[in-house]
Amino acid sequence: MRQLMQSRAVRSLCYTLVLALVATLMPTPLVKPACAQLMPTYAVGVVDFVNESGVQGDLLARLATDAVVVEMSKTNRYDVSITRTMIKQAMGDLGLRPPLTKLGLVRLGEALSADAMLEGAIKSVQLAGSGPTRRASVTLVVQMVDQASGEIINGAVQTGNSSARVGYTADDSSLITEAVNNAAFLAVKTMIDYVIPEATVMVNMGASQVMINRGARDGIKPGMRMIVLREKEIIGYIDVTSADPTDAYARVIKSMRGIQPQDKARAIFEMPTVSSTLKSEPLPTGAPSHGRMGGGAASKIGKFLVGLLIVGGIVAMFTGGSGSPDAPKASAAGPLVLRWDPKLYNHGQNVSELQIIRDQDAGDAGAIPVRTIRDMGQWNAGYTDLSNLYGNGAFTVTYYQMPLGSTTPTSATQPYTDEGYGVTHQYQLRALLRTQSGVDQNGAPSYSYEFTKFGNYIVATAVQPVTRTGIVSPLNGESLYVSELQAGTANLTWLPSVNTNGQGGDQYRVVVWPVQPGTGPTWTSNVIYLGADTEMSLPDLDRLSLASALSSPLYVDRQMYWRVDVRHGGDTSPDWVLGSQVVFRIGSTPGGPP
């Protein structure tokens, strides 16, 4: 059948039949007057970027957001008329808060009638050199999420650099502003240059293979994964196995409603990786004061808006309270583990309290922590695990506060309810520092107190592990027959780790290994993404791979462990939440080995 379909004569016949079918359904002639063909315009909502560099905080992130919006407005590909005010209003109506999950972006895009939503992040800010040779570079990541499917359909990772100046030494703020604008220009240009490969399903070739009407000339290539849509509803996934110049063949990975001819296929964009060798260097000065926006009316408007933003940001910086410029930098040592440098602040001797702030502006004197650390032993450990804040009931935090105008901290308490698993938060660190300012009239030392500013934040989700109660099959002690695994009548199946709102783990992997070392293979699946089904199983590609790994006659009756690990794709930490291990037996088949 495959050889028959690959013949040019049969392909031509397929095209003719499909065109004839379409012609019978169309009330107007197929021939159109000659005209210029324009690229489709996408209505895109741009949410405020995040700043993962620890340099200048949210103000620099907003500057990068505006720079990208201005560059997108200069093209004929994107309609970016959805304003920040409209986005904030829609988020409030939907009860959403940053950082947004993929589901949150899809819901927001639907509310705004957008074709896609764009999110981004400043990954690093680097400064090098001195005097006229001092230069800045900023690495910017942007990705566009399709509103209909929730898949990434475009994106870019670009590093913008400032230019060297002869006879003039610019301040660091100006250099970074120029680098941000250049990164925004390059990122948008990269997205403009990329055309999303799209195709139409022509013929079903059995239950697991289809032929599509686009090939290598249209950007289709083997290994490309595509979503299949029917009237903007995602109904399946296919993997391109081979591509000829004008058409291609694909394997059906998942089909929710049965893939049919005339269904639309769209490539899933593969985001490039971020590579950075230098650490971000904090700036001694305030926020950027100007930027290159290019010529024309749109550029002047962009400069004016950015100028207003910067003025407002500088005013906020000077009216929001002072604070030490040395912020405790947080890093992720696990899914919900925050790490800091215990050598800071005289090895913690000057720290009255370390505060972990959740979803608040840590530079606000009124920010309330979800955890505090005062014990020197905990400080010197250099990390704290926040996982016990979730799933263990209500708790109360005792913390120090210093309202504006205060010079001495006072103790306060804050009760919290247990929100359970699945919600994504951003966490920041700040420290209450104590330094000796003199002695009082009795000769006892007197102290002054101040909160540090905030630096970077860590995005983390309390994802519930996949325990034995979440395993569907094979259950502990059951047999798994390789022949059934090969045929698709058996599979490894589990329940997704999400809350009632569908929030939580959106990436999964399955790990299999022998109970007794050396008696079976060790196998790990590819990343498996959360779908719309109430249960999850190995995709066909992984299922067949596992069947092949278990197929040796030497493995019959051997016991194997298996578990499901889970994580949230938007978290800072790349680590997995490990699931509970379950034992299955490699079963034989009637009449011989598996």
Topology, element by element:
Layout: H1 2-5, H2 8-25, E1 42-46, E2 50-51, H3 57-73, E3 78-79, H4 84-94, H5 102-111, E4 116-128, E5 135-146, E6 152-161, H6 172-193, E7 198-204, E8 209-212, E9 225-230, E10 233-243, E11 248-255, E12 264-267, H7 297-319, E13 331-334, E14 337-339, H8 344-347, E15 351-358, E16 369-373, H9 376-381, E17 383-385, E18 395-401, E19 410-416, E20 424-439, E21 445-451, E22 458-461, E23 471-473, E24 479-481, H10 482-487, E25 493-494, E26 507-514, E27 523-524, E28 528-529, E29 536-537, H11 540-550, E30 559-567, E31 582-587
Parallel strand pairs: 1-3, 1-4, 2-4, 24-31
Antiparallel strand pairs: 4-5, 5-6, 7-8, 7-12, 8-11, 9-10, 9-12, 10-11, 13-14, 14-17, 15-16, 15-20, 18-19, 20-21, 20-22, 23-25, 25-29, 26-27, 26-28, 26-30, 30-31
Helix pairs in contact: 3-6, 3-7
Overall description:
A hairpin with an 8-residue loop joins β18 (395-401) and β19 (410-416). α3 (57-73) crosses α6 (172-193) and α3 (57-73) runs antiparallel to α7. Helices cover 22% and strands 31% of the residues. It has 11 helices and 31 strands. The chain is globular, with a radius of gyration of 28 Å. It is of the alpha+beta class and 594 residues long. It starts with a helix and ends in a 7-residue tail after the last strand. The protein has 4 domains: 42-195 and 282-319, 3-Layer(aba) Sandwich (Rossmann fold); 197-268, Beta Barrel (Thrombin, subunit H); 331-461, no CATH class; 468-587, Immunoglobulins (Immunoglobulin-like, Sandwich), CATH 2.60.40.10. The longest helix is centred in the middle third of the chain and has 23 residues, at 297-319. The strands form 7 sheets. Strands 1, 2, 3, 4, 5 and 6 form a 6-stranded mixed beta sheet that branches.
